[in-house]
Amino acid sequence: MKNLAIFDLDNTLINTDSDHAWPQYLIKKGLVDAAETEAQNEKFYRDYQNGCLDIDAFLKLHLAPLARYSKEELAEFHREFMAEYIIPHISPMQRMLVQSHQMAGDETLVISSTNEFIITPVCRLFGIANMIGTQLETGPDGRYTGNYIGTPSLKEGKITRLNQWLAERGETLESYGKTYFYSDSKNDLPLLRLVSEPVAVNPDAELEKEAKEKGWPVLNFK
């Protein structure tokens, strides 16, 4: 029976937070108001770390710039963003972790609260075809509207979105022999507690405490 290896993205497969880094890139490019964006970005990042992020307010701020540009322009921005803000923060050990599951024939999946525009090229870099991120609304012209659709994949929302993904494939978690989930954050404890093989990666204090109490493996890539 095939296994399922699920990975969080930020601070798990990459040693940075892409959701936090994207506004920094936009500021550097002069595409957003620097002072306001920096202040809001830092506030939302602290809220996420503290487990009290207002996801609707965060996404309203975070997705608005996507509506101002064509997908072709955004793709070029993303290539620059990846080269400067993402690729330098991927370690050989993180690549090897994914490759070990791929070589074992496991199904691999990234599930992240970060939106699908940001995560898709990063997942492709790892050779991961299955990905779940916060879904973005597109208008009749094919451009992003600045709104999201469906359930954001944050906290319990990751379980909701995972179950939707499995249902679309005619599967449940029980369809797999072992189910792994790798994450760095206490925000992911609901899903970590659900899978058969939870693994803490670069864990925050609360996750590290629970991992030690329950005997979960702990990996450090930083």
From TrEMBL:
Alphabetized CDD domains for the sequence: HAD_PGPPase
Keywords: Hydrolase, Magnesium, Metal-binding
Keyword set includes Calcium: no
Catalytic function, reaction form: L-histidinol phosphate + H2O = L-histidinol + phosphate
A molecular-function term among this protein's GO annotations: histidinol-phosphatase activity
One Pfam family from the record: HAD
Pathway recorded for this protein: Amino-acid biosynthesis; L-histidine biosynthesis; L-histidine from 5-phospho-alpha-D-ribose 1-diphosphate: step 8/9
InterPro entries in alphabetical order: HAD-like_SerB, HAD-like_sf, HAD_hydro_SerB1, HAD_sf
EC number assigned by the record: 3.1.3.15
EC primary class: hydrolase
Described purpose of this protein according to its UniProt entry: Catalyzes the dephosphorylation of histidinol-phosphate to histidinol, the direct precursor of histidine.
Family recorded in the similarity comment: Belongs to the HAD-like hydrolase superfamily. SerB family.
UniProt-recorded name of the protein: Histidinol-phosphatase
Source organism (scientific name): Neisseria gonorrhoeae 3502
